[in-house]
Amino acid sequence: MKYFIMILQISILFLFNFIGQLIQDYFSLSIPGSLIGMLLLFSMLMLKIIPLESIQGGIDILLRDIPFFFIPVSVGVIQYLSFFYGKGAFTILLVIVSTFLVISISGIVTNFILKKEEKSYE
Amino acid sequence: MNNVITGIIAVAATFLLYRGSKRIYMYKPSSFTLPIFLSTSSIVILMLLTGISYETYMIGGRWLDFFLGPIVVSLAVPLYREIKLIKKYAGAITIGIFAGSLTGVITGIAGAKLFGFERWVSETIASKSVTAPIAIRITETAGGNISLTAVFVTIAGISGAMFGPVILKMCRIHHPVAKGLSIGTASHAIGTAKVLENSQMEGAVSALSMTVSAVIVSFLAPIFLSIM
């Protein structure tokens, strides 16, 4: 029974993803259906149409192991090994350096503003 | 029938390697034992050694891909749980995400130019910080290579999840909002999965950041591609 409920709770995610995709297609939006689905579920939670207690069990199980589902996409790198053997290798370096810059700059900016805000509260 | 068996074997092997990686990470947590990195690289090495093709692996791999959309939907839950906190810091969060998105687009394009790559590389790399479905769409509009974009997105995700915590420590950033925000902005869902380990709060801010940055980058990338 416990597993049955969990499967139902996870099915809700598929349903919202599907609705999100329908909306994306219908209005030909550039925002992906999954993000639309997330915003829809979020609104349903905020409006208390869907109580958190009714879905959180299964979702929390899924949230713990998100990386598992990203493995096949990541394995896709294997198709580009020949591109990365040559000059393409620099693109990997570039992506990594740019990612590190995004992390440090957004972190520093946010931290700076947070500290300033906290000071002005005092 | 044969395909079903191949698929089941691929998923089962992926699951076992993932569980194994998770256990290793528990005993020896470090950037290089991060489960997504350890399990992906061991599968790639296994495939190269045994000669199993990507198409064969993906017979089962595709089943896991079906979960990617619903997983993004599931991030509504941590977001809802932490909404009070997000409202409280709304100003800082908005500016922080914008700063990060801008950095990603500009450094990506500038770097591709610096290394002397052709135009399509800039068009492919500009959107690499955001979640794959949006990155692909941005690249498609710009005229880059969409399957390579997916690879860049993955590298941005995994490298940020692996080394993000170290970088944040080096920059002396300890506030959970700033930590979740920067990793979500740089490394989308893969980064979010990593920071969810630390706390629901960081996970929520990260989920929000990957969503907002995706929207911001879809505006910024075409602008900077046309002026740079």
Summarize the structure.
Chain A is mainly α. Helices cover 82% and strands 0% of the residues of chain A. Chain A has 2 domains: 1-64, no CATH class; 76-122.
For this entry, give a set of tags:
heterodimer, A: 122 residues, mainly alpha, 2 domains, 6 helices, 0% strand, B: 228 residues, globular
Characterization of this structure:
- The complex is a heterodimer of chains A (122) and B (228).
- By secondary structure, chain A is mainly alpha-helical.
- Chain A folds into two domains: 1-64, no CATH class; 76-122.
- Chain A has helices at 2-26, 33-46, 52-64, 66-75, 81-85, 89-121.
- In chain A, helix 1 packs across helix 2 (33-46) and helix 1 packs across helix 3 (52-64).
- The longest helix of chain A is centred in the last third of the chain and has 33 residues, at 89-121.
- The model of chain A has no long low-confidence stretch (mean pLDDT 91).
- Chain B contains twelve helices and no strands.
- The termini of chain B are far apart.
- In chain B, helix 1 crosses helix 2 (35-50) and helix 9 (132-142) runs parallel beside helix 12 (200-227).
- Chain B has 228 residues and is mainly alpha-helical.
- At the A-B interface, helix 1, helix 2, helix 3, helix 4 and helix 6 of A face helix 1, helix 2, helix 3, helix 4 and helix 5 of B.
SSE pattern of chain B, N- to C-terminal? HHHHHHHHHHHH
Count of individual beta strands of chain B: 0
How helical, in percent, are the residues of chain A? Answer: over 70%
Mean pLDDT of chain B: 93
Class of secondary structure makeup of chain B:
mainly alpha
What is the mean pLDDT of chain A? 91
Largest interface: A-B, 70 and 106 residues
The number of distinct structural domains of chain A comes to: 2
Spatial shape of chain B: globular
Strand content of chain B: under 5%
Number of continuous helical runs of chain A: 6
Strand content of chain A: under 5%
Helix content of chain B: over 70%
Rg of chain A (CA only): 21 Å
Low-confidence stretches of chain B: none
Classify the oligomer: heterodimer
Separate helix tally of chain B: 12
Low-confidence stretches of chain A: none
